[in-house]
Every structure is written in C-alpha cells, then in structure tokens.
Design goal:
CATH topology: Leucine Aminopeptidase, subunit E, domain 1
Strand order of the largest sheet: 1-2-7-6-3-5-4
Helix content: 25-40%
Shape: globular
Radius of gyration: 14 Å
Strand content: 15-25%
Number of strands: 7
Distance between the termini: 18 Å
Largest sheet: 7 strands, mixed
CATH class: Alpha Beta
Number of helices: 5
Structural class: alpha/beta
Length: 175
Amino acid sequence: MERNISDVVIKTYIGDITELAVDVIVNAANSDLWMGSGVAGAIKSKGGEEIEREAMSLGPIRPGEAVMTTAGKLSAHYVIHCAGMPPGGRATYWKVASSVQNALNIASDNNLRTIAFPAIGAGVGGLSEQESAKAIATGIIHYTKEPRSVKEITLVGLNKYTCDCFDQAFDDVQE
C-alpha cells in the first residue's frame, strides 16, 4: 500500500523495523521505558543498550506520551519511544493514538521527514493487530490535518497480515 493524505506519503513495509534507514523509528514502549521483548527488545539488541539507558533517563512518562533518543548502531538516526501501556499493563486504543500524535509532533519539532511505526500495543500490549492499526491510523490522520516536517510515514509489520490491517485501518478510520 502507498497512499497520500495531504502532502504525507503513507506506506507499508513487511520486515524488520530496525533495518530501515529512516530519520526515526518508533519503539512500542511501556511508560517506564525499559526495553524488554518484542520491538523494544529488537531495537535494544541491534542498536545497543545505550538506547535503553538514554530512554530510561527521560522517564517514566505517562501512557500516551512519547520521548526521543539517539538510535545507537541502527540505520535510523533516532528512536521515538511511544508508551502505549504501563509496565505489565495493557495498551488502549486512545493511548496508542495519543502516543502516535506525540511521536509525529516530536519528529516535526526536530524537523525530521521520515518515520517508521510498528504495530504499537499489539502483541504484549494486548491489542489485536486491527485495533493497533486503527489507533495508529487515527493518530496519523489527526497529524495530516496540519502536517509539518514529516512527509513519509512507513507502517511496519512482520507479516502481510499486519500490513493488511494497516491498509484496512485507513479505509475504516477515514469513512
């Protein structure tokens, strides 16, 4: 999928978010910002423990908020940590949507143009891929009403099903 909303290109990518050479990748974080399993674990494993140390020095934050760190050894320049849930708790639709909006604002405040999001709140967070995708689409559509520096958003799934959920979410949310 590739679509334009306002002057923002939104596309999907099947694969590993840690491999993308974009300005910033998003970590599906907990509000204490320690990086355990899933996307967070992959980012820490490939990018280095300094990402987690820097993130934790900025927290804790509230679910729905986001903070930015350097990206260690990753191809991306930065990591934005979106807190969709408290540690050991469950993500909610509105916390994920809010964290996406906050991530896009942080990226714009730093004049970044390209960002990649995983399925925040899915998996360990307890949301289905469909719920996560709709929450992310909601946050992105809100941003595109008054877009700033971010011009390309990549939605990353480990499989075709997750990417299909992203595609369907934009159709559902825009109706």
